[in-house]
């Protein structure tokens, strides 16, 4: 009513003043965005980070500070390079920083039910709560028998064909995660479930790749009719196919449960909750598959890095073996009953996760509203990445030897586990992420890596192969595989030999107890 009595010219003048003031404030805010390297017109910095971006980011942090900005074809990307900035934003401001980048095709392809990548909403919260109920610290011990079983089978296979240790690790990881999620391990090398889920995962990740679908850059294409939208028909088709497949896997667990032939598993926990406030069947089936996909690739990658670490650092291997021999002896294999008495082995696990995180950039977050941090403006919808590699190799946190593998950094003077670093959620590293997006299965993952590492160290010596002149061939720890979803070492040879003549017999006896029975 105030402007109704004003002359039209004055109304227009006030409107122009308002627009100019808004633009000035907006431009001032944009000028106070975090600093960053200059890029190319239109493309921005995208061509500068195509190879080993986590290493590039850590180097740029020396110039631009712990928070810097990149322009990725017009998209603001904020890189966090030390633990304080990552914890300040992703933990202590998690309400604003917990969303994921919007991806039109991936959401349609999965029904937005792959909760790892799903955007924040009521469905995501229900899935997160259900995943926590099935994998949280209060239930992690339920999976100990499954973990001990796969550790024994892994050692048995390494005894039979040590040169194929990489394949054995992948099989053991897939089998263990399959057993934890669905209640049944992999009994055959060509288990159809693994192949079908891997294809599903590949489709999902392909849809997330930059440039995969034009609609991500031209959102008006969402409004085009279906017959003009090949991406829509593709996503709808595979959502229908994958939903049927994943529901079938889930129903297999339901059938076994109803017949009394089941043990602890994520699917069984989700089934138990369905009668109250649990997830619907379809949501539970998709959640189960998402948890399998997240666990299988990362756990096998970390075990491969464990093998590399033991090969490169024989002194750490010998210390761990000496502790295992003192606690366990040579007459049986390690079990979870030995867990509290093997702090050095647990420190080895922590150091593997710190030294070589399999997700060196974590998974991108998205800022849901404008924010200011230490004088810098961070605009809404910015993609925010925690450089886990940089955080885990920060010399201000881990010392001048942060790039080196040293389990002792996680121990106190008495040889016990030390008080973990602040903001690491008792982990001693940042490999599992932050805030509401922290890895829910980390307690199970830690135990799995522990029992497999302990079993391998009890059973074998891991040593370099020798060349024609008899000199040891020491692999480089930096070449990485390019055919993997996670950061994994390039293939490397090593000699894996039993530590005594009794190993094979004790492994066979243990397998008879924990597997065959």
TrEMBL record:
Its cofactor is heme. GO terms for molecular function: heme binding; iron ion binding; monooxygenase activity; oxidoreductase activity, acting on paired donors, with incorporation or reduction of molecular oxygen. It is a single-pass membrane protein. The keyword Nucleus does not apply. GO terms for cellular component: membrane. It holds the Pfam family p450. Heme binds at residue 439. Its main location: membrane. It is found in: Membrane. Pathway: Secondary metabolite biosynthesis. Keywords: Glycoprotein, Heme, Iron, Membrane, Metal-binding, Monooxygenase, Oxidoreductase, Transmembrane, Transmembrane helix. Belongs to the cytochrome P450 family. This is Cytochrome P450. It comes from Favolaschia claudopus.
